[in-house]
Amino acid sequence: MRTATGRGDVAKDLAMAGVVAYHAALFLEPLDLAPGWQAEATRVLAISICLPAFFLASVLFGGRLLTDSWSALFRRRIVLLLHLYVAWSLVRFVVFQVVPWVLPSSDP
Question: Are 54 and 13 part of one and the same domain?
Fold first, then answer.
């Protein structure tokens, strides 16, 4: 049986997948691996649907964050996010040592 939290997680996961698709198209377009319409379509999708859906689902199902103590919040959420941030930073560093930066506006 589906719960409200399960549907909220699905909504957040779909929203994150849309944002990932946008970033993939953003990097593939300058290499001519994705057509321009695809990058524009995913940009519109990410900005108009995915981001608002993610924030709405986060607000609706994040009420426990307001009632828990700071230590419980730190143990349950912040430590996990800190580990993910460090892991993602290492992956990003390794990838951009191998893959050239294709976006003209800024450096990685």
Answer: yes
